[in-house]
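Help! Submission page says 'invalid entity' but I think these are all valid:
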Amino acid sequence: MDGWRLDGLRLVIEVAATLAFALSGLLEAARRRLDPVGACVAAFLTAFGGGTLRDVLLDRRPFFWVQHTEYVWAVLALTVIALTVLRAQHFALTERAIQVPDALGLGLFAASGVDLALALGHEPLIAVLMGVITGVFGGVLRDIVCNEIPTVFRDHRPYALVAFAGGWLHVGLLQLGVQGEAALLATVAAVAGARGLAVALQWELPGWRT
Amino acid sequence: MDGWRLDGLRLVIEVAATLAFALSGLLEAARRRLDPVGACVAAFLTAFGGGTLRDVLLDRRPFFWVQHTEYVWAVLALTVIALTVLRAQHFALTERAIQVPDALGLGLFAASGVDLALALGHEPLIAVLMGVITGVFGGVLRDIVCNEIPTVFRDHRPYALVAFAGGWLHVGLLQLGVQGEAALLATVAAVAGARGLAVALQWELPGWRT
Amino acid sequence: MDGWRLDGLRLVIEVAATLAFALSGLLEAARRRLDPVGACVAAFLTAFGGGTLRDVLLDRRPFFWVQHTEYVWAVLALTVIALTVLRAQHFALTERAIQVPDALGLGLFAASGVDLALALGHEPLIAVLMGVITGVFGGVLRDIVCNEIPTVFRDHRPYALVAFAGGWLHVGLLQLGVQGEAALLATVAAVAGARGLAVALQWELPGWRT
């Protein structure tokens, strides 16, 4: 594929994943009966919190959403639509529908977190952690604001771990000399595939032996 | 009014609002039975958390409280006084007494957040969000530390929304060429007025239709 | 003692305290039944959260753990070991065993927070607050992620207060012209001693009089 098509593909994944993350924030807000302001903040935190935390840690500015305010407008619009349209009977369906863009987004955000940290000269381990933070901490911040232990820290599902493994894959591919966009594509595919497998086969992380 | 008087007026609002915010943190700390350290942190977070988060996001230094340590001493003193003097029967009265400086502060902090972000060259939407964060996220951090869903995200009262509207008003006034201090004054008056109306008329934000 | 021995002593305290902080995160994770990912994040936050928050506030980079990735590997390894080895009957013993390195670490982190802030030209009060944040906010972030009111804000034990007093002691020693490493050693000893006394004598902070 040429660069133009890759850029287009990346943009499609990015938009779909951002909306999927925002929707997961809105679902949680609805379950916890937040008001419209809380719903908006939950959507916003889930969609942009991970990348923003990464950028604060890496001391990068401007943030993604500061540079692309159209995404902020989109999340605001999505919140208004959800408040108007979303009913309890849609929750399960919505949750299933966002799994695919969510898994693709996990891969994309993990890989782009790695790319940004490596470009700043960080070690592979730090880059991988930044990738995990990008993909995972939006949901963490959403759950903290909703006064819950973050799901990703207690559900024994391989989510952060898939992002962690994907981050190392991405680092490895780049060190093997694979070209940047191709490595990103491979990482996205691998992360989404592994996440899909983990969901399908109901893989569980081991627990405490106490 | 000349500049000297405006500066004085601004300072009076700033001091009163900061103490009102700190007091709201202390009330919450007393309700949740925090110890003196927790009370101090709750007061501090409520008073300075919003502006500090805004400055971290905008990468501004030094923070307000780093530059004006007299405010930190004032919050420490207020905490000691509250621990000595505050009794359960004072809670309701204190809560009513801080509504006015709180509403004025909401306007002042929203407007000054907008001013700072615009001065850094940000778009109006980002500036307005920074204004809302300045006015509202002190209370959000207080509630997170007190292990509650932030009030402002679930009480269906127009608080963040009033700050949001006030932020846009401030941006609009500045773009119409209104001089900075006059626009600030108008925004403070409008926000405090709208907030007062919202409380008096018990306006409620719509909820989920589920 | 010559500089080489002091450096060695400091390194020993630093390693022991970091592991003690990480272990306290793992104990909390085990109590709250977090999964391995959550356990790892709790350990990491407790060990590095205070210093990282301080560095974000002071706008310092790189973070300690970014510069010393061997500490990150150590916390990852400790998490794996804890998940394999830790049983409920070990909790009480572990908790007692980490009290000493924890108290030494509180002194070390408070003193080094003061040093860093003073070196950046901050006022004593700000430096002392940065010292307290370094020593205390790792545990605060751990408790927030575990959905609890931070222990240090509600248990009426002199922990943050000991760090606060130790910070002022450190500032005072430096202003009296005591050489840096000697002042650090004295602060560590004083903080650990005061903390030990507070635990032994069961000192309690006063509560609300309501």
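Support: the input was valid. A stray whitespace character was the problem, and the output above is from the cleaned input. The CA atoms of residues 166 and 190 of chain C lie 7 Å apart.
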